[in-house]
């Protein structure tokens, strides 16, 4: 039998309010992740038993085991003391002298609920809110999974807690299914994320979008933890330095033991969280993911994505893409996400200042020095991911890139390769190559935005062309001139009779067809030629990872921009005998088959460029059908996003954005 522990409540009692979930009139599982269940050491079929349903609806005994049918009554009710509805918040940017409030955790009483609502504060849309927390959620407890990692189990939609702030505490079915679906998709894409274990229909109707009640549901969620930036803000604003220090110790024990090796552990924790978030947001960006509500209470200390309320994915690429109905100022638009991540990390740093150094100025200086590395860590993760998506070799250690080790603010590595002239030359070549990849990637995204090209379709068409060339040993990969006679120009403008067959894009109809006219395709051809030259002049070996484009707020100097612009030309020019885009001799085996480097390039592109993502209109259609009782569209979409890097016969309609009715797509958080 599963038995949970109370690691968080034991370590941080003043951030945990004991509370029981309200009973469910008629619980039944609507969707679940068998893969996640097994990872947690749970037999998926056990979840259908009375004890399994007890776990998924929050009926937990005092010893951490789910209630049996004859077990103790787990009917609702909070512990004796609630949480204050307000608390003083310093007006200082760094509230090192904020007066601690009264510790708000309820007394630890005999027979109190095992489950707790977590307390936190946060900045919401840039404004401080001193009192947030789990208003409709409970932390069931934690367990050690099959890989030896400690994981939280958490329920959302269990009814109002003492932190509900006037909300009814319930959740409708659609948003809970949405969170499970998006979490499974992000996991399959290799992006760190919380995951839904199951969605349980409660049998309780919920009023949300109109006079007609919706079906109520609970989401059971697994996470590395539910520690947030807002957790530290609450401790700093209300409880004082000792509580912040305790929370730092708990976070280090739970997630970042390497931080303890630094002279100031709190500073080490900040560095670890900074790197994790830089890597995470880079992955969001290249996948086209828009979180939608990047408040500080929605940024985890573990580096996992959490809370998929108004999230969406970019179809036609646009840096200002914003879908959330509540983000009227577009604060959390796609292109703003890296900058917002750094802003949130600055709020974490402020909360940590009292335990970094007793001298406020010294603490600010030390924290600022850590955060100045965010740009370099982010750009390295992004460039690493862009290289994979483009099939370009960087020839650097992937693990060090993922960690950001040795990266300066411009994302270069310094002397990590060893001493001496050879190391200097290698480092210089790697820096030049990295700058070239960054410039090529950024120019690609600008091109996609200019011509309103679908981000996912573009990169997958490029990938499929390379896969076809690698498997057949032909010269028809993207970026290679060809005399194929396939007519791909179907325009009805003045260029109707233009023959694109001798162009690079003309050999790949799926790629050329994404661009609206011959002028746009000419721009594509020029970009493909740059890509081919860079591939041909790069070292073997491709770094792993997924990333995203630079925030539009990145104000690189003209000198830096010029260096990046010319870097790909320099990389190509350094090798006077580099082959032309159409010369295949040095990339073929003696029998004419593709060389191993070409095959590896195509295979790694295939692992970085998904065929299927949870397209906004497909998600919306699946959820609407599920709300009406038809789960087939949801299950079909869920199956596709769980295996996103291959084409699925019969699911081709899910590869594109779906039918556009001409209206802007808007997401709602469902709270």
From TrEMBL:
Its cofactor is Mg(2+); Mn(2+). InterPro entries: SelO. Residues 70-82 have a biased composition (Low complexity). Keywords: ATP-binding, Magnesium, Manganese, Metal-binding, Nucleotide-binding, Nucleotidyltransferase, Transferase. Residues 401-411, 549-568 have a biased composition (Basic and acidic residues). Residues 67-111, 401-428, 473-505, 540-606 are annotated as: Disordered. The active site is at 297 (proton acceptor). One of its GO terms (molecular function) is manganese ion binding. Mg(2+) binds at residues 298, 307. Its EC number is 2.7.7.-, 2.7.7.108. It comes from the Bacteria. ATP binds at residues 133, 135-136, 156, 168-169, 221, 228, 307. It catalyses: L-threonyl-[protein] + ATP = 3-O-(5'-adenylyl)-L-threonyl-[protein] + diphosphate; L-histidyl-[protein] + UTP = N(tele)-(5'-uridylyl)-L-histidyl-[protein] + diphosphate; L-seryl-[protein] + UTP = O-(5'-uridylyl)-L-seryl-[protein] + diphosphate; L-tyrosyl-[protein] + ATP = O-(5'-adenylyl)-L-tyrosyl-[protein] + diphosphate. It is an enzyme of class 2 (transferase). Belongs to the SELO family. Nucleotidyltransferase involved in the post-translational modification of proteins. It can catalyze the addition of adenosine monophosphate (AMP) or uridine monophosphate (UMP) to a protein, resulting in modifications known as AMPylation and UMPylation. HAMAP family: SelO (MF_00692). This is Protein nucleotidyltransferase YdiU. The lineage of its organism: Bacteria, Bacillati, Actinomycetota, Actinomycetes, Micrococcales.
């Amino acid at each position: 039998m599963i038995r949970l522990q109370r690691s968080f409540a034991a370590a941080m009692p003043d951030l945990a309010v004991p509370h029981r979930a309200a009973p469910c009139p008629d619980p039944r599982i609507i969707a679940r992740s068998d893969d996640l269940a097994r990872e947690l050491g749970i037999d998926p079929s056990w979840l259908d038993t009375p004890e399994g349903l007890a776990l998924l609806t929050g009926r937990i005994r005092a010893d951490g085991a789910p209630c049996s049918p004859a077990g103790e009554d787990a009917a609702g009710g909070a512990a004796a003391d609630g949480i204050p509805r307000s608390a003083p918040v310093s007006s200082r940017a760094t509230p090192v002298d904020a007066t601690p409030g009264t510790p708000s955790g309820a007394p630890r009483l005999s027979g109190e609920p095992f489950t707790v609502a977590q307390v936190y504060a946060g900045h919401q849309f840039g404004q401080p809110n001193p009192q947030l927390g789990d208003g409709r959620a409970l932390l069931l407890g934690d367990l050690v999974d099959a890989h030896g990692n400690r994981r939280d189990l958490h329920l959302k939609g269990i009814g109002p807690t003492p932190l509900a702030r006037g909300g009814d505490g319930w959740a409708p079915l659609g948003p809970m299914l949405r969170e499970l679906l998006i979490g499974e998709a992000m996991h399959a894409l290799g992006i760190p994320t919380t995951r839904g274990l199951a969605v349980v229909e409660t049998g309780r109707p919920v009023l949300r979008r109109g006079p007609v009640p919706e079906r109520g549901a609970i989401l059971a969620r697994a996470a590395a933890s539910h520690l947030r930036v807002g957790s530290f803000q609450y401790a700093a604003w209300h409880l004082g330095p000792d509580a912040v220090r305790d929370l730092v110790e708990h976070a280090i024990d739970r997630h970042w033991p390497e931080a303890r090796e630094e002279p100031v552990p709190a500073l080490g924790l900040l560095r670890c969280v900074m790197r994790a978030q830089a890597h995470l947001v880079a992955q969001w960006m290249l996948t086209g993911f828009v979180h939608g509500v990047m408040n500080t209470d929605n940024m985890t200390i573990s580096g996992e994505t959490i809370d998929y309320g108004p999230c969406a994915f970019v179809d036609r690429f646009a840096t200002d893409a914003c879908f959330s109905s509540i983000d009227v100022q577009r604060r959390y638009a796609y292109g703003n996400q890296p900058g917002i991540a750094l802003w949130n990390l600055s709020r974490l740093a402020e909360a940590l200042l009292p335990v970094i150094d007793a001298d406020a100025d010294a603490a600010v200086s030390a924290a600022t020095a850590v955060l100045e590395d965010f740009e370099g860590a982010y750009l390295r993760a992004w460039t690493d991911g862009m290289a994979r998506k483009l099939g370009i070799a960087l020839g650097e250690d992937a693990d060090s890139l993922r960690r950001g080790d040795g990266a300066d603010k411009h994302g270069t590595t310094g002397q990590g390769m060893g001493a001496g002239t050879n190391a200097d030359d290698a480092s210089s070549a790697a820096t030049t190559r990295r700058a070239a990849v960054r410039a090529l990637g950024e120019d690609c995204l600008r091109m996609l935005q200019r011509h309103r090209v679908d981000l996912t379709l573009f990169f997958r068409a490029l990938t499929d062309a390379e896969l076809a060339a690698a498997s057949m040993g032909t010269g028809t990969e993207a970026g290679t001139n060809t005399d194929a006679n396939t007519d791909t120009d179907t325009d009805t403008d003045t260029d109707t009779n233009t023959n694109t067959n001798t162009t690079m894009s003309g050999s790949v109809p799926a790629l050329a067809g994404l661009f609206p006219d011959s002028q746009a395709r000419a721009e594509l051809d020029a970009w493909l030629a740059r890509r081919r030259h860079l591939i041909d002049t790069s070292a073997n070996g491709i770094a792993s990872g997924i990333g995203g484009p630079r925030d539009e707020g990145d104000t690189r100097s003209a000198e830096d921009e010029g260096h990046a612009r010319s870097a790909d030309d320099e990389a190509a020019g350094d090798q006077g005998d580099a082959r032309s885009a159409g010369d295949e001799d040095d990339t073929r085996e003696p029998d004419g088959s593709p060389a191993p480097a070409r095959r590896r390039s195509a295979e790694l592109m295939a692992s970085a460029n998904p065929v299927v993502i949870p397209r906004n209109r497909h998600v919306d259609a699946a959820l609407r059908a599920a709300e009406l009782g038809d789960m087939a569209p949801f299950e079909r979409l869920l199956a596709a996003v769980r295996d996103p890097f291959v084409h699925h016969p019969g699911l081709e309609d899910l590869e594109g954005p779906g039918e556009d009715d001409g209206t802007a797509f808007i997401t709602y958080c469902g709270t």
